[in-house]
Amino acid sequence: MKYYIIAGEASGDLHGSNLMKALYVEDPNAEIRFWGGDLMQKAGGILVKHYRELAFMGFVEVIFNLKTILNNIKFCKKDIAEFQPDVIIFIDYPGFNMRIAKWAKALYYKTHYYISPQIWAWKENRIEAIKRDVDKMFVILPFEKSFYEDKHHFPVDFVGHPLIDAIHNQPAFDETIFRKENQLSEKPIVAVLPGSRKQEIIKMLSVMLSVVDDFKDYQFVIAGAPSQDFEFYNQFISNSNIKFVSNKTYDLLRSSTAALVTSGTATLETALFKVPEVVCYKGSWASYQIAKRIITLKYISLVNLIMDEEVVTELIQNDCNTKRIKEELQKLLAPNYRQELLKKYEDLEQKLGGEGASKKTARLIVSDLKK
Question: Which residue ranges form the domains of the chain, and what is each CATH number?
Fold first, then answer.
C-alpha cells in the first residue's frame, strides 16, 4: 500500500521515522513518500521536502513567511494527487496539516492523524475540523483520550508516547568515548537545549548561557539541532566553559547532571532521561502578548501538563532571566531537590503508557486499510 506522511518539525521527524520502521514491518511492500527530515530519510521511502524549509515559529514569523507557506501547501496537494496514496498520515504540525486534511478529505483520501494537534491548549474550535476531516486520530498523551471522547464525543486511539520507544531503543552508550570524541572535559555537564528553529535559538541561547560564569565547576554543552550549522551557534560561544555537540542530544542527556531546556518536546525527553531540568521560554513581544490571551493552560511544559502539577520550574518571558535561571539551576544541583524530582519522573513515565506506540499505531493504520 501507499503511504504519504507529513511531519514539519524535528520531533515529527523522530516519531515519523519510528512509525515508518513499524509500517515496513506491518506492510513489507509499503511505498512511502514523506515530508520530514534526516531520520525519516534513513528509515526509507522518498523525501519530498525537508522540515528545515517549513519551520516558522510564532504568530508574527508565520505572517512574514505566509507566501512560502502557501506555496508549500500548493506543492503538497499537487504531489499527493500525483502519488495517489492509500492513506495520508499527518504528524502534529497542525497549521499546515489541517489545511491539507480538509482538501484531502473532500477528495476522499483516507486521513489518519498521529500525534494530535494541541487543541486542548488553544484553538479548541479546531475540533469541528478534526471531526470533519480526520478519519482516525492516534493520541499520545493520557489526558487527550478523555478530552476527545468525553468532552467532544470523537473516538480516538491512545497508543502511548513514542518517546519511550525512542529512548529505550537507544544503542549502547559509552560516556567516556562520547566525551573524548566531542572534546568535553571530566567536569559535570549542564546540557543546554535551546530548540531547533533559528528564531527560538536566537531568543533563548544568550540568556541560557548568561549563567555560565556562576558555575565554574560545570561545563555547559549546547545541543546543536541537525537543521542548523555550527557557524550559526558559534556566535553564542564566548567562553571556554561552553562546548557544543551537533545532532547528539540523547547522548548529551545521558551524560548530563542537569539541563536548561526550551519549552517543547525536549522538556519531556529530558525528564525521560531522568535529567533534572529548568524549562525556559521567551517569544517575541508580539507573539507572547497574543499567546497569553488565547492560551489558558496552567503550564507550558509537557512534564507539568501530564502530571498536572509543577514538577519542573518554568521560567517564561520576563522570568526567563539570568538571576532566575541561576537560582533554579542551583536548586537542581542540590541532592535533596534532585531526589524528589527524579521520583516524580518515575511517576511521569508510568502515566505515559509504556513502550510500543509506533508498533501499535502502524498496526492500527494497516489494519484499517485492510478492512
Answer: 2-160+356-370 (3.40.50.2000), 168-351 (3.40.50.2000)
